[in-house]
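note to self — DONT lose this again. spent like an hour looking for the file last time. sequence + predicted structure for the chain T wanted, 414 res
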Amino acid sequence: MARETGAAQARSAGTRTWLLALGMFAIGTDLFIVSGLLPDLGHDLRLSTAAAGQTVTVFAITYAVAAPILASLTSKMDRRILLFAVLLVFTAGNALSALAPAFAVLLAGRIVAGASAALFAATASAVAGRIAAPERRGHALAIVYAGMTTAIALGVPLGNAIGALSSWRWAFGFVAIITLVAAAGLWLSLPRLPGSAAAGVRDRLGAIRIRRAPLAMLTTTLWVIGTFVVYTYLGSILDTITHAGASDRTWLLLAFGIGSFAGVMSGGRLADRTNAVTGLTATIALLAIVLAGLGVAVYSLPWTAATLALWGLVHWASFPLIQHRLLALGGRDGDMLLALNNSAVYLGQTVAAAIGGVLVGAGLLSRLPLAGAAFEVLALLALAVGAGRRRPARQAAEPAGDGYPTSERRDVRR
């Protein structure tokens, strides 16, 4: 009987974890979907390409700022109630975006969606770890994160196809419907999960004191800018330069998504088998080359498809390596460092959308891939400087029994 009970509990935890992943799928789709919809969205609301791209900016900057603040303010709330409420707010943000009669209303919808997405992402991973058996926590966290990568591979092309068949508004409606399904499932399946007196905002931000963390955050930010200065305006590039129709844009985005899914899986294996700095150096260098090549490839539809798939592969192969390195740098504070890294990711997306908007406004849409490659070179320089910093002599005497690679052991400025 005990064995049956254990099996039933495992199945129940698995169902709940997949529902959390569904919520992450909705968030990932909402984040990346705008790129392919920019031409139609801008035309409908009478916006320039640069102005339409700022919908990505407000979502990303809201996410970056809201993540540590909202996580601290809601730390004592029951997790079941919090997840359900947050998904309802996220649904409302997407409904507002779908029905927006003007640019200002659309921006308001993006702010609401960005804030609620930040809180859900921060909460979902912690809940997945709590509901899973100790020996399956890593697997549960991987499933939740797979929701985000699957969104890139399937959710974004599907949303773009919906936008092509009807309207960009229905693409946001699609995200809202998925979110409601996840919210209902979590409300019905999750037990009560009391909150805790988690670290405050100051403690969460204090992880930046970890030695080499600032340069690691800078590497992440520059790496993100390099990709998103291009990806934010990819729909416009495909429309204006490649002359790809709406249906062509769908399968081109699918090529990027498939490459992304393969990349994150490959990056996970690479992180287990090689030094994180070595792996990152290789993937970011290759990413710079691919982005530079994209500037030439976009004039041919077949070459664009091949380059997009390779771009997704090498970009997302870097992400597990970044996380692996941060966990090693952070030691016991690794979770806080990862949370800060999430803010660095969305800060990078914010800056990328703004820089891209300036370049597009100056008539340099075709030069975005070269700009992206330049930022990846800067990311390589930040990585090299951070990895090359010597640790204090007192650190060399520490035992190597903390479970982290000696090349990336935690070193906090006291």
